[in-house]
Amino acid sequence: MLEGFGELRLEGVTRRFGAAVALDRLDLTIRRGEFVALLGPSGCGKSTALNCIAGLLSLSGGAIWLDEKRIDVLRPEQRGFGMVFQNYALFPHMSVRKNIGFGLAMRRAPKEEIRGKVDAALDLVQLRTHAEKLPGQLSGGQQQRVAIARAIVVEPPLVLMDEPLSNLDAKLRLEMRTDIKRIHRELGRSTVYVTHDQDEALSLADRIVVLHEGKIQQIGSPEELYASPANLEVARFMGYRNILDLDAERVDGKRVALYGAGIALDGMAQHAIARGPVTVAIRPDDVEPAGAGGNAIEARVEIVEYCGRDWLVDLVLPDGRTIYARSPRKVSPGASAHCAVAPDRVLVFPRESGNDRG
Amino acid sequence: MIAAERRLDRTAVLAVPGVLLVLLLFIYPFLYGLVLSFEPKEGGGLGNYLRFFSEPFLYNTIATTLSLAIPTTLMNVGLALPIAFRMRRNSAWQRVLTTILVLPITLGTVLIAEGLLTYLGPQGWVNRLLIESGLAATPIRLTHNYWGVFLALIIAEFPFAFLLILSYITGIDPALPQAAATLGAGPARQFLHVYLPLLAPGLAITFCLCFVQAFSVFPSAVLLGAPAGPTRVISIAAYTAAFEEYDYSMASAIAMIMGAVQLIIVVAVLGLRGAFYRGPAGGAKG
């Protein structure tokens, strides 16, 4: 079993399934105590990466290092990382207590030690009263907590979580998210967390790794990714729902003057930009119908959805394209709206080849 | 409510042909045989049973049959389990082996017995190979004795045990052994702590089904065995009573005894099964 560590390094980790490349030369360093989220759409390679770290999948190329020890050659039982599976993978024939104690029993810990540690883990996930039940007698959220307790009770150097909340309903998901955050803060275990939900990644992680088609798109803190996504893929994932193909008329340092779709606005270049076709990403939150200052966009209100705190508004641009906005005030469908967008919230990217998501 | 009741009615109607079939082809003959067994040619109501358990030539058939059925069944389950376990990942080999193993099931016991008679006989391939290679000086007797029937039962029942166990193994969520692995269990302990407890009820069922078939062995006991002596199994005793002595009452009594022995073993094994977890073998609620 592996003891505490300084850092886990993935060096050029590659995994192929036949001709398909699921993971393409992944480089990533996870520091001690850090909570790292692997974020991406299904099929982006995030679960493959997790299974490679756990040892459930062998690598097609590259290496994984735990400090100075190469671990990709070890079997999963020799790595001793705690893993929480998407479907929980609780042993159906064992009581909650036996499930949680399984890892300690496999390490041949003395009986009293197992009992004490399992009790502590049961308290941590607030399941003390359910200790003697079988997993099948628990609710989904309780099963999830057993799975987490089972993974952390062995005090693993690294905890791996594979979309642990995806099988829960919305309310429970929020509660469990808080629990996972609390447990991570109390125990300080390095955690790699796989998810396709950017809210989960933003709220839980110290650092987020965005994956797309097996390649890392961006690594950064939640704030960095949210404010300045490195490319359109990341932008889409970070909630930039308005992706528009426009033309850059003037480029002045980072500031770009844009035309197209019947509108004119200023934006900020995220990369070196030349005049010509570009793609622009704007978050709905940054488009304010009936706002003032910054860029002004004239549009017609099409659909208004009430969301409690604010309104989600579908706007139609003069050329017929739709953009989305969040409005703190109620607006009426059919009305024309003078929208305001701050220029530094208009992110300008080079046009993707074959980009048809105008 | 009304709709649900109507659907229930229709379902009940669907069960009628099945129930009729069972009544006509199983319950009625069974009860007929049961009554017949208490109307012996001579002696009181229990005459046949008293005769069976007082004549060694008759009651020894129980031991003879058990001595064939239990070792072969244990061996089949014991062999099928590791092989099916190795084959648990869906692969080309799994399909090839499954296809090969289905063949003996389709052949039927008589054909297998006929084939083995030549194959295992003094001039058969097995003995020729043993003699040519110098492993044996004279032909080893593998037919018309205990071992002929033993091998025939292995060949006939193994595929059945294998396919049944394979389906039980593939029904276990692969995330469970993976979870055990991340918790520090190597392959042996994954098998011991995860697979085996989840498979135990299925193994008990497999044992029962194979045992019942082996216990009622008849064609291979006659063709490959020594039906007058070492492989005079209980079905031969029933056959002799019915078609050589024309004592249907005695034959019915033997059949009832045969059924009772099978039932005792099956109930005992299924009782053991109760000691194990019997729910779904998945990692989560459905």
Model description:
The complex is a heterodimer of chains A (358) and B (286). With 358 residues, chain A is of the alpha+beta class. Chain A has helices at residues 46-54, 76-79, 96-106, 111-124, 140-152, 170-187, 198-204, 222-227, 232-237; strands at residues 7-17, 20-31, 35-39, 61-66, 69-70, 82-84, 158-162, 190-195, 207-212, 215-220, 242-252, 255-260, 263-269, 276-282, 288-289, 295-306, 311-316, 322-327, 336-341, 347-350. Chain A is built from nine helices and 20 strands. The longest helix of chain A has 18 residues, at 170-187. The mean pLDDT of chain A is 90. Chain B is 75% helix and 0% strand. Chain B has one domain (55-273): MetI-like (MetI-like fold, Orthogonal Bundle), CATH 1.10.3720. Chain B is globular, with a radius of gyration of 23 Å. With 286 residues, chain B is mostly helical. In chain B, helix 3 (56-86) packs antiparallel against helix 9 (187-215), helix 7 (146-170) crosses helix 9 and helix 9 (187-215) packs antiparallel against helix 12. Classes of the chains: A alpha+beta (358), B mainly alpha (286). At the A-B interface, helix 2, helix 3 and helix 5 of A face helix 8 and helix 9 of B.
CATH superfamily of the largest domain in chain A: P-loop containing nucleotide triphosphate hydrolases
CATH architecture of the largest domain in chain A: 3-Layer(aba) Sandwich
CATH class of chain B: Mainly Alpha
Query: First CA to last CA of chain A: what distance?
Result: 52 Å
Distinct helical segment count of chain B: 12
Please tell me what the overall shape of chain A is.
Answer: elongated
Mean pLDDT of chain B: 89
CATH architecture of chain B: Orthogonal Bundle
Overall helicity of chain B: over 70%
Order of strands across the main sheet of chain A: 6-7-8-3-9-10
Helix count, DSSP H or I runs of 4 or more residues of chain A: 9
Give the H and E element order of chain B.
HHHHHHHHHHHH
Query: Biggest interface and its residues per chain?
Result: A-B, 35 and 26 residues
Q: Determine and state the CATH class of the largest domain in chain A.
A: Alpha Beta
